[in-house]
Amino acid sequence: MDLQDGEAEVIRAEVDGVLQRHGLERENLIPILQDVQSRLGYLPKEAMQQISEALKIPEVDVYSVGTFYNQFRLNPPGKHQIKVCMGTACHMMGGHIILESFERRLEIKEGETTPDREFSLERVACVGCCALAPVVVVDEKVEAKVSPIRVDGILLAFEIESKKSGEIEKPVEEEGRMQ
Amino acid sequence: MRAPEGEKLLWVALDNGIYIPHLCGLREAERPAASCRLCFVEVEGLPNPVTACTLPVSEGMLVHTRTPRVDRLVRTGFELLLSNHRLRCGKCEKNKNCELQKIARERGLKLRLSRLRPLISEVPVDESPKTFKYDPGRCVLCGRCVWVDHHQAKVGAIGFIRRGISRKIAAFGDVPLAESRCTECGECVKVCPVGALAFKEK
Description:
Chain A is an alpha+beta fold. Chain A has 2 domains: about 5-70, Arc Repressor Mutant, subunit A (Orthogonal Bundle); about 80-180, Glutaredoxin (3-Layer(aba) Sandwich). Chain A has 7 helices and 4 strands. Chain A has helices at about 5-20, 30-40, 45-55, 60-70, 90, 95-105, 150-179; strands at about 80-85, 120-125, 135-140, 140-145. Chain A has a 4-stranded mixed sheet, covered by helices on one side. The longest helix of chain A is centred in the C-terminal third of the chain and has 31 residues, at about 150-180. The radius of gyration of chain A is 20 Å and the shape is globular. In chain A, about 25% of the residues are buried. Chain B is α+β, with helices and mostly antiparallel strands. A 3-stranded antiparallel sheet of chain B has the order 2-1-3, covered by helices on one side. Chain B has a two-stranded antiparallel sheet with strand order 4-7. A two-stranded antiparallel sheet of chain B has the order 5-6. At the A-B interface, helix 3 and helix 4 of A face strand 5 of B.
């Protein structure tokens, strides 16, 4: 995932701050990673490299821990977070088909974020409303009995919304240009 | 049988011509990974079979390397490894020089699945290094290469990534080895017990 403008500096500063609060021993690796993630929302490669240098361990060892635990994410959270339920009931009702539909529509794999950082896609264990299977949680909203067509609908709604907000912004831009 | 104090049972047995199957063990490693689960033995006085690579020898120890319980554990462990290993020995660089084949020969096990279904990762072979290649479909995840990379070559280029069925050996960021800090020293290839890391034929 490419960094946005100024993001590298933010990462460096935040990781520096976290490293100062922890002892630089190997056993503190997980707390450090947790702190970095709570500040940045994810574990960028640059952060992991910086941590490996500070703890004097190979960078692949940091990557190893970061990829082992489910709590760590390596991609930035999108503006809209899509969580597809993969609990037993949703699995039986075709949750994997829904996940695949999102993967195909967004052109990303599970656990990834679209390059424009609009959407991130995750699989989650049971959401807790198995009667509504297959369930998708988009941001905080629960979508019940989702079909591949509904997947298109969910994404279309966001598309229309972003176009609308774009239209509101546009006149302001034009005004600016006229002056 | 005599042995230096504190030496692990596995190495004592091997030095004295008694074969115990093993994949992950490295004599130089201070703390064995004990991850391959193949070097089980039964020791009189201990209730359950134990891994020979982690057990230091002691005075008067009585060890059985072949008991029904040990054979059962090894047979199942071996088949589990095979279920995740691409079995095309004829096309493998390590054919006739493979630890899996040796274990099968020594213990009378088949290089075929009987109870389990094959579940082989479809991860592409990393052909990027000039002198060798890495085939995750043949990797048994013993971790010998990682240990050598970290402790002998002291490069720190490769390690285990992810978890469960998608666990594999990779460089930082899962990039091809040629793009990583791998120096292509070849030490990891020398210790690979199977054909996962193999020198390219010239």
